[in-house]
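BACKBONE STRUCTURE TOKENS:
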Amino acid sequence: PPAHSHSDWIGPPDQHSNLRPVIFYVPPEESALERRLREARQEAQASNQRFWARHNRAFRQEKEEFIYSRLKAKGLEMRDESGNKATLNAEEMADFYKDFLSKNLKKHLQYNRDWYKRNFRITFLMGQVALVRALRWLRWRKKNVGQ
């Protein structure tokens, strides 16, 4: 982002996680509380990035292996006569999706627990930052209205 920017910048989706990375704006006079909030948001983003990149990589790999094994069991190749990639029908793919989700249920539950904890912390810090800013504004207003 340009040096004069005063907001967060959101990039294009990451090729592995499909999440859009955020470059967080750092105000020149960032308070310790505001820094804690920004760092919590950055850690949440990094954690989400790691989880979804790993998850999507495993999903693609297992999907390819599933398709290959099903095609092989049918005596088919990965490519048909015209060179196009062979596919399975929706019912066969539904079996894969169901098995993949069942196999990864514990990982998803742990991810959701961690996600809620992070977001609760971020929300709490956002509330604290908002309160400090509101009190600062009220003190400024009281000082300037009296003049």
Notes: Residues 32-73 form the longest helix (42 residues). The first strand starts at residue 9 and ends at 10. Residues 9-146 form one domain.
